[in-house]
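User: My advisor, Dr. K., asked me to get a structural model of this assembly before our group meeting. I'm new to this, so sorry if the format is off. These are the inputs:
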Amino acid sequence: MEAQEEQLLKDCAPFVKFAKLDELLSLGRANSLWPLTFGLACCAIEMMAAGASRFDLARFGAEVFRPSPRQADVMIVAGTVNKKMAEAVKTLYDQMPEPKWVIAMGNCAISGGPFVFPGQYAVVEGVDKLFPVDVYIPGCPPRPEALIEGILKLEEKLTGNRRWPVVKPE
Amino acid sequence: MATEDILAPLASTPPQETFVLNLGPQHPATHGVLRVKMTMDGEYIVRAEPVCGYIHRMQEKMGENRSYAQFLPNTSRIDYLSALTYTHAFVGAVERAARIQVPPRAEYIRVVASELNRISSHLVWWGAFLLDLGGFTPLLYAFDDREKILDLLEGITGARLTYSYFRIGGLYNDVDDEFIKGTRAFVAHMRPRLKMYKDLVTDNVILRKRLIEIGPISQELCRLYGATGPVIRGSGVPYDVRKVEPYSAYPEFDFEIPTLPEGDSMARYLVRMAEMVQSLRIIEQALDKLPAGPVMAEKVPRVLKLPAGDFCYAVEAARGRFMVRIVSDNKEIPYRVKLRTPCLSNLSLFEEASRGMLLPDALALMGSLDLVIPDIDR
Amino acid sequence: MNAEPNSAGAPPATKPAATLPAPAPAPAPLPNPLAHLPLPFQAVDYFLKGYHLDASVTPDQVVSAAELLGKEGFALDTITGVDWMALGQMELVYDYFHPQRFLRVVIRARIPRDNPEIPTISKVFPGANWHERETHDFFGICFLGHPNLMPFLLPEDATYHPLRKDFTA
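Assistant: The format is fine. Below is the predicted structure of the whole assembly, which you can bring to the meeting.
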């Protein structure tokens, strides 16, 4: 009987999975991240290009850009955050329901970017001064492939394993 | 039905009946961080007041802190969709003041690159405008075409969006055979695509109902607010800096300025679609006539000091007239850099033009003005 | 053009590089096409400076200058403020362009730095409304008669004027 049970489990293996609920939930969340449309400046165009036909974020489940923060899980801060805008950004972050993540896309969102100079008066030097950031994507602007890599890194943070291994240049 | 007829019964509405609707700064249809405080009477706008400054990045202050060559990356980021035209204005102002003669091959390549950039900017405008009006598909087609342009420009400049290709005195590097062949192939590919867009989108009855007679802007309104670009050309004035104040190698080429007299959103839309066709013409002529020679002027000083005084240079960017005014006091760093951006003047007429409009019509008007907000805020 | 496109991209050794002819000729430059206006215009080399006519006026004359140019059909290009701290003055440069003619006009006015005030031209050119708000933001220049001199690019509660030369963040 045990050999039969074992054989049964082996046959069912492709169709039936046993896992912890947490893992299933994180798999679901990782594969259906809904970004908030939060393009501020130049990086927004690369974010749109990543969602458009050639780079196609839809393959990774992140195609549905929600305009309302109440319906989004991940806020991709694409562009420079200003001191005048900082309050609005913080409000948007607070309005997002848990679990939520933040991707800082581009140099401006990471550290103020090319607009930091001694005596600067308007730019917030990095969006992590306002709220915690999960993934940083450097670049000015980062290529759409870099944004996709950032989404994959976030998926890795959620589920613990990457969709596919890192490609090593030959 | 004219707007006055619609509003007449509401004219007696007491002021307490209006409410204030806040559009933005985070909104899918504002193309950046623009906030518009709208006083609404039901669905009709009583007063729309744009509030800017949410992406103010101190470009003019940085002009006073950087040398002429160090300011070049900033120029791309003012209006990142037509970045090369903005860099052209800045290097043009410096070259004009320092009396640097740019070699003709560099001027021709600058024209080719600027026109490719103009097409890619209009494609983004077209996709985003239709997204605002409710159609998602044209955005994907537009970005597909745009990726081809970006591949070409990446081959010569190394960047996809914010190029620093033009240098003071010429170009960073020369174009190769691959670029020329690729651009010709792109021109051949794009012409039937534009025809397809006309058949599928421009002639679409829903688009026509949403744009024809919506958002009329008169010539006098354009003049009072200094609006330029497709806004003034869609109102019947053939004002294009490339023809009226010629610069660079544009006098060598034969192209038209699409102008339409109606002044409504459809006219501005058609002007931009026709401009893409004219840009293809310019690119073909420039590639046919491309002269041999160096791409960098010979004696550009390493440490550039402009003579004292002020100098300006204007170009026709994708959105209108962009002018750089440099005030110099004979040092390596400019004393003042003033950027006259088209979107600021174009948006300033929104308050007057949108009175009494329905909210969706006002958004169609705003989309037809083609705004890039970092251009306003600099 | 006397040079044919060279597919190798390198200039041929013996042919001299082609030169562009002079840029498109402006309509025969008259000494002052706006001589009928009572403004102290001076002709300027367009190919060096980028504009044709330059007039320096006193601060109270800017409105009448704007009206005269408005009647001629000019449009306001931009208003630039310059802080000449060493001279104790601020300069306002009004650029005008004409939508149909190749003619660029500049009107300048200088005001004292410690009390920078100048009348507004926003009744003549409504587009000046935003330009003047921005100049006020950056320099603190008060435009007398302006309907709404609130900060435009800076936060609503900003009290600093960043483009002044003595500004420290």
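One thing worth pointing out at the meeting: Chain C touches chain B through 52 residues (CB under 8 Å).

User: Perfect, thanks a lot.
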